[in-house]
Amino acid sequence: MDLVYNLLVALHLLGMAAVVGGWIAVRSGRTVVAPIVWGARAQLVTGLALVGIASAIKDDDHTVNNTKIAVKLVIALVVLAAAEIGSSRGRKGKDTGNLLDVAGGGAVVNVLVAAIW
Ligand code: HEM
């Protein structure tokens, strides 16, 4: 189970890299590119799976802070919504406003919540 959990942590970090790295890479182009959307989807799925496994194991290495997870979940949903809407609007040639920054900035906030809280 630890191997599965650690693989999920690795995927979770790669999803984060896709969103934050994608954001930094395309900031000048103002486009929500596909890796950002897939990264945001991956964060939700791998994050929920990590919480499920950690809750099931519940030893000293796998504790779940429900308040912190609730905050991360809300921010991740905002990131995903901004990425999905920004990407869809971009494909239709419509203005995406600040949706790119909401997605990228929100992901950075979640990294800070994960690392500092
Ligand atoms: C944009 C969305 C997200 C980002 C950027 C993000 C980022 C991160 C990062 C950088 C870590 C590693 C922290 C460390 O090793 O100390 C982490 C860990 C974790 N995240 Fe997220 N996260 C996101 C969404 C979520 C969501 C939605 C959930 C659950 C609902 C979640 C649950 C977890 C859990 C349980 C861990 C701990 C893994 C461990 O045991 O080390 N995350 N997250």
TrEMBL record:
**Where is the chain membrane-spanning?**
6-26, 38-57, 69-87
Per UniProt, the keywords (alphabetical) are: Membrane, Transmembrane, Transmembrane helix
Q: Which domain of life is it from?
A: Bacteria
What protein does this entry describe? Integral membrane protein
